[in-house]
Design goal:
Rossmann fold; 10 helices; binds S-adenosylmethionine
């Protein structure tokens, strides 16, 4: 074990399998919680509170309900000892019932996310949960993909899907030195505001299939992709959407993909 993996005091060594890189810089913790713009009484859900780097700052703002999802039982026990008023849900945040968050409760969601699950987790959360806003720390490269605009190298299925549901802001970068143990990569803090007119469940399924189909062949022209999938009326479909047949997937805006997904016959959507 690396010497820096061991923390003095009550905690067990950090578990790499759970992406445990704990933030040790109180100013950065405060900046992350500031980005949530908490008012007394707001409901907060934190993913992976760990040793409580963000928790202390959330508690200081006097939230209404404060729920945390933590997969490490020992850390959950420790957190409950320190903050008995918190509602602790033990288990995998990926398996959480994100549809259960009601819009009326105005949940604000925050987390310094384990790198290995950050992108699929954000995909699930923005497309299923009703949130007032969310602030997440992720690996910088994932953050750049989440916030990427069309036309660039980072723009792909993740950017389009997430941006179909939310406005994404990359707020600031965080260097490895402020974590214990130190990760090998730089991190970034992002903020998400859901759009009022988001895709329905059916549209989300169509969008996800359309993105899989298009970004598997991201260097090809959109007409070639549709034709290769056996979509006979691909010329008519593209004309109705005002999409130039020669465009490549990486140049299409999120709303074009949503419209394309809605027009494609269901048999072509896996
Ligand atoms: N919030 C703390 C901080 O900033 O220091 C800890 C962040 S650490 C990067 C990620 C945390 O998520 C750890 O506490 C880890 O145990 C927890 N975790 C890992 N995988 C998880 C999962 N699938 N569901 C819920 N929590 C998870």
């Amino acid at each position: 074990m690396n010497k820096s993996d061991r923390e003095p005091g009550r905690y067990a060594p950090a578990k790499r399998s759970l992406g445990q890189n704990f933030l040790i810089d109180a100013n950065i913790s405060r900046k992350i919680v500031d980005a949530l713009d908490l008012k007394p009484g707001d409901n907060v859900l934190e993913i992976g509170p760990g040793r409580g780097a963000l928790t202390r700052h959330v508690v200081d703002r006097k939230p209404g309900r404060y729920m945390v999802l933590e997969m490490d039982d020992a850390l959950a026990d420790e957190l409950l000892l320190q903050y008995p008023g918190i509602e602790v849900v033990r288990g995998d945040a990926l398996a959480y019932d994100w549809d259960s968050l009601a819009a009326a409760d105005g949940w604000k969601v925050v987390g310094n996310l384990p790198y290995n699950i950050a992108s699929p987790l954000i995909w699930e959360i923005v497309s299923r949960a009703e949130l007032a806003r969310a602030v997440f720390m992720v690996q910088l490269e994932a953050g750049q993909r989440l916030a990427a605009k069309s036309g660039g190298r980072d723009y792909g299925a993740l950017s389009v899907f997430v941006q179909s549901f939310a406005r994404v802001e990359l707020l600031f970068k965080v260097p490895p030195q402020v974590f214990r143990p130190q990760p090998k990569v730089t991190s970034a803090v992002l903020r998400f505001f859901l759009h009022p007119q988001r895709p329905s469940k059916d549209e989300a399924r169509r969008l996800s299939s359309t993105l899989r189909m298009c970004f598997q062949q991201r260097r090809k022209q959109i007409a070639t992709i549709l034709k290769s999938k056996g979509i006979e009326d691909y010329v008519g479909v593209l004309a109705r959407l005002d999409i130039d047949a020669r465009q490549r997937p990486e140049t299409l805006e999120p709303e074009r993909f949503r419209a394309l997904g809605n027009l494609l016959p269901p048999d072509f959507l896996a």
